[in-house]
Every structure is written in C-alpha cells, then in structure tokens.
Specification:
CATH superfamily: YbaK/aminoacyl-tRNA synthetase-associated domain
Structural class: alpha/beta
CATH class: Alpha Beta
Largest sheet: 5 strands, mixed
CATH architecture: Alpha-Beta Complex
CATH topology: YbaK protein
Number of helices: 5
Radius of gyration: 15 Å
Strand order of the largest sheet: 4-2-3-5-8
Distance between the termini: 43 Å
Order of helices and strands: HEHEEHEHEEEHE
Shape: globular
Strand content: 15-25%
Length: 159
C-alpha cells in the first residue's frame, strides 16, 4: 500500500521502512509496539492540541509517555492549551484519531513538537493515516520529515 505519508518521505528522499500489523488489534501505541516487536516508547503518539489563540499544534511523544501540561504551555508559548476534539483533529489533519501521520498534511508554519528523549531511540514508529500500517523512521529523519522542534515535554524540572 502506498499512502500520502510514504509519498511525502519519497519526495524528500528520506529513508524509512514500512511495517504492517493486523488492523484487528486494539487501538493504541502499546498494541502496535507489541504487534511489531518494539518498545512502547518507540511507537509515537501523534496528538493535536489547541491553543487559546485558536492555533493548533502537533505534539509527538512515546507511547508510554505523558505530557506535562506546563512544559507544553512553555514550548507553545500559551497559557491555555487543551487537547483538540476528534472533529478538530480530523478538520486539521484530514485523518481520524488513531493513525495520524506526523507529516504530509501540515500547512506552512504549522508548529510541531517532538519529545526530546525520543532522540535517544534508534528507530521510531509513526502512523500512516491507515490503521494496520506504520512507518519506521529514525528520530533525525522524523524531524526532517515533520519539521518538529525537539523539546522536553515529559520531565519536570529538567534544565
């Protein structure tokens, strides 16, 4: 299967591997990690947040990580941030929650953040927009493909 996310990476000459799992498995990063034989940390949650200005941002964290609200507020430069509704996510990305690719759909100047600890992982798995299909990519190439800014989003009091 060839998807827009694959085309985006090919156009940028960014290497990646395709991985497939049964679309019948339970949704979630833990399920994908188990099905593909990776650690949960390596399967990326692609989340859309809405700022008080109306701006929406993409945030990527490992499947076993939780965002510290204050750190995200600081990174985004907003005091009021909330998770976007399912409808807002689909309106913004063109994809339903569950397998949103972290690239190929963003307009210019769309801000994307990547949890900085993920740079230590050898390979990361991201959604393709089609449940049952995953893209395996290095953290460096994920940054190239998505334009993400690496920031601390999960560890309090880290300087």
């Amino acid at each position: 299967m060839h998807l827009p996310a694959h085309e985006h990476l090919n156009k940028l000459n960014i290497p990646f591997a395709k991985a497939e799992f049964s679309p019948a498995i339970e949704k979630g990063a833990a399920s994908v990690a188990n099905a593909l034989g990776y650690n949960e940390r390596q399967m990326i949650k692609t989340l859309i947040f809405e700022l008080d200005t109306g701006e929406r941002v993409l945030v990527m964290v490992g499947g076993d990580q939780n965002i510290v609200s204050g750190l995200l507020k600081k990174a985004a430069g907003s005091r009021n941030i909330r998770m976007a509704s399912f409808e807002a996510v689909e309106e913004t990305t063109g994809y339903k929650v569950g397998s949103i690719p972290p690239f190929s759909w963003q307009p210019d100047n769309f801000r994307t953040f990547l949890e900085i600890s993920l740079l230590k992982e050898p390979i990361l798995g991201v959604g393709t927009g089609q449940w049952g299909h995953e893209i395996m990519i290095t953290p460096e190439n994920l940054i190239r493909a998505s334009g993400a800014t690496p920031v601390n989003l999960t560890v309090r009091d880290q300087r």
